Amino acid sequence: MEPIKICDNVFWVGAVDYDIRDFHGYLTPRGSTYNAYLVVDEKITLIDTVRHGFEDELLSRISKVVDPQKVDQVISNHAEMDHSGALPGIMRAIGAQKPVYCSAMGVKNLHGQFHGENLNLIDVAKEHPSSGKLSFQFLDTKMIHWPDSMFSFVPELGVLFSQDGFGLHYASTDRFDDQVNPALLRSLAVNYFANILTPYTAQIGKILETVKSSGLLDKIKIICPDHGVVWRKDPASIVSLYARLVGQKPSRKAVVTFDTMWHSTEYMARELTDALGARGIETVYLSLKNSHRSQVATESYEAAAVLIGSPTINNQMFPSVADLLCYLKSLKMKNKIGAAFGSHGWSGEGAKLVQAELTAMGWKMPSSEVRVQWVPKEKDLDPLKELARTVADEIDKLELSKPDWSRRLRPYFLASEHQPLLSDRHPTARQGGFFPVAPRCRPSEH
Ligand code: FEO
Fold first, then answer.
1. Measured from the CB, is residue 292 less than 6 Å from ligand 1?
2. How remote is the CA of residue 177 from the centroid of ligand 1, in Å?
3. In this structure, which topology does domain 251-398 adopt according to CATH?
4. Has this prediction a pTM greater than 0.90?
5. Which one of 124, 142, 305, 324 has the fewest beta carbons within 10 angstroms of its own beta carbon?
């Protein structure tokens, strides 16, 4: 395993996880990386580690730069297990009592996670790590992504180590932004932001403001996150993307998502999709039979409206819809128009419960839920068309722009399952996009 030189004094020594698909409930169809960095100065500093199980990969890369026992200290920018799981093993390899610098919350979190280990954890506010000719500055970045999170900055190099911030999940041999198609990077970054950072947009907005007002932004030449590519060609691009994403501003887009028992709710979803599309709204159709909850979250992030359909089963909404609502609720998405619909046999609670959940989430609900008993007949479509009209009218009032073309490259396809229409590689990409194919409607089964 070879290290990658980032710039003078800094090496990437992390690990590539090509196989991970479930990242604590979030789909990572392109795998991920756990980035760790070695800063080589008079002292040698390891910045973050990797997930448990990747210790050998990390040590192998470190050992191509320096004997691991010569590492003097570790900076833990973020305590979550994907960056600290290997810490106990790495400390045993480099010297168990060497200092591990982190935030005050990092001390607590790492103690909580590794209480059986005798780690020498030091709060950077109480004791500052030295390096030699280089120096470290720390910025409290609470809730990007956990309360312990902090950025480390080496001013002499202009290198920012941003842990989860500015990351994306992408397993590849490419380490730098200039090696990957920018549209794909943007798509992966939005996917990451929507599923990891949405609940914290207010805090992230304030941190970005601090980064700008303190003058730090002007000094950054390279951003080294703990996942995905190092931003060396255009670090400003990911910062400006974040500045836009924290606003949770919608575009002229709707998501129609649902589950179905015997295709009736599916039929309703298709009617709604057609009606919204006919109004010039980019409408994404996502059946929960083949779409992961995190895919729905990503598509919903920049959508103005999210319409959710559920049949009724045993007086409840469908379990997959409940799963989706629980997930969306936890993300605390703002600025959404919601709508609920569904088919039922006799009691019909499903769509009502969805309506109640979306209302409780604070989404704007311009219409009551639309329910159809049994299989939809032609006349049952009128309330659905009215629902689509109402939602479209609400979207029109917002005078939103359409999602730009690059937003339509979706990160969900797996190379083994689909032929990507747009190359991952920069700059030889053909123009095109991937569009989920809606399942065929089977009228005979309604
Ligand atoms: Fe990549 Fe919050 O851990």
1. no
2. 20
3. Rossmann fold (3.40.50)
4. yes
5. 142
| CA nearest ligand 1 atom 3, residue | 80
> How far apart are the CA of 92 and the centre of ligand 1, in A?
23
Token pair for residue 348? 């019909």
- State in Å: Cα 412 to ligand 1 middle: 20
CA distance 193 to 187: 10
- pLDDT computed for residue 430 by the predictor: 35
Nearest residue to 446 via CA among 350, 369, 384, 380: 380
**Six-digit token pair at 188?**
């992966």
pLDDT of residue 252: 96
The H or E element that residue 390 is part of is helix 381-398
Distance CA 266, CA 272 (A): 10
Closest CA to 93 of 125, 158, 46, 154: 46
CA nearest to 15, candidates 164, 227, 232, 231: 227
- Catalytic, 285? Answer no
Tokens 């190099």 map to which residue? 157
Q: What is the CATH number of domain 4-245?
A: 3.60.15.10
Q: Which atom of ligand 1 is nearest to the CA of 81?
A: 3
Phi-psi domain of 289 (left: phi exceeds 0; alpha: psi -120 through 50; beta: other): alpha
**Which atom from ligand 1 is nearest to the alpha carbon of 164?**
1
pLDDT along the chain (446 residues), means of 10: 97 98 93 98 98 98 98 98 98 97 98 96 98 98 96 98 98 97 93 96 96 95 98 96 95 97 98 98 96 96 97 98 98 98 98 98 98 96 97 97 71 49 52 36 38
Selected catalytic residue, list 18, 22, 24, 404: 24
**Is the shortest distance between the CB of 34 and ligand 1 below 6 Å?**
no
d(CA 39, CA 11): 7
Is 34 part of the annotated catalytic residue set?
no
Neighbour tally for 186: CB within 10 Å: 19
412 is catalytic: no
Residues 276, 247: contact at Cβ < 8 Å? no
* DSSP classification of residue 169: -
Cα 262 → chain centroid: 33
Catalytic residue among 55, 82, 357, 424, which? 82
Q: Among this protein's residues, is 83 annotated catalytic? A: no
User: Ligand 1: does its nearest atom lie under 6 Å from the Cβ of 145?
Assistant: yes
Provide the residue ranges of all domains of the chain, joining segments of one domain with +: 4-245, 251-398
Q: Which of 359, 367, 264, 275 is nearest to 310 (CA)?
A: 264
Tell me, yes or no, if the two domains 4-245 and 251-398 fold the same way.
no
pLDDT at 405: 58
DSSP, collapsed to helix, strand or coil, labels residue 326 as helix
Question: Does ligand 1 lie within 6 Å of residue 80's CB atom?
Answer: yes
